[in-house]
Amino acid sequence: MANDTHANILLNLLMREYGCLPDEYRIVGFDDSPIASEAIVPITTIGQQIDKIAYEAMNLLVSQMNERKKTALEYHKHHFRIAYDHSRTAPC
Q1: Which of the 8 DSSP states describes residue 23?
Q2: What is the four-CA torsion angle of 29, 31, 36, 41, rounded to 10 degrees?
Q3: Full DSSP string of 28-86
Q4: Position 75 confidence tier, pLDDT thresholds 50, 70, 90
Q5: Rounded to an integer, what distance in angstroms lies between the CA atom of residue 39 and that of residue 6?
Q6: How far apart are CA 64 and CA 70, in angstroms?
Q7: b vs e for 18-55, b when ≥16 Cβ sit within 10 Å of the residue's Cβ?
Q8: Banded model confidence at residue 2, pLDDT cuts 50, 70, 90
Q9: How remote is the C-alpha of 63 from its chain's centroid?
Q10: What is the pLDDT of residues 34-51, one digit of tens each?
Q11: How far is it, in rounded angstroms, from Cα 81 to Cα 73?
Q12: 58 CB-near residues (< 8 Å, 6+ apart)
């Protein structure tokens, strides 16, 4: 299921239809919310560790931005040096 709320909705629909959770159904939620343990039948849930995911995403983003900045600086330094290198003699 998309998240624990959706898993709980499915569980409630199945309980209304069959009066129990049929053996052929396995319901797993994906956000580790309190609703999983408060459902009619506790729902298995997988925590996403959003704080760790966000931290790693920001580190990756900052690293990529720094790399782009470094590459852009190197590019401009090279082209600036070539364009304004007065030590070179112009062909006449």
Answers
A1: T
A2: 10
A3: EESS--THHHHSSSPPEE----HHHHHHHHHHHHHHHHHHHHHHHHHHHHHHHHHHT-T
A4: confident
A5: 11
A6: 10
A7: eeebeeeeebebbbbbebbeebeeebebeeeeeeeeee
A8: low
A9: 16
A10: 889 889 889 999 988 889
A11: 12
A12: none
**DSSP H or E run through 29:** strand 28-29
Q: Which amino acid is at 43?
A: I
Q: Is-contact 46 28, C-beta < 8 A?
A: yes
Q: Which two tokens stand for residue 53?
A: 């995911």
Structure tokens at 56: 């790693």
Pairing relationship of beta strands 28-29 and 44-45 according to DSSP bridges? parallel
Mean pLDDT, rounded, for 20-42: 90
Q: No. of H helices and E strands in the chain?
A: 3, 2
Q: Three-state DSSP class for 17?
A: helix
Both structure tokens of 25:
């159904």
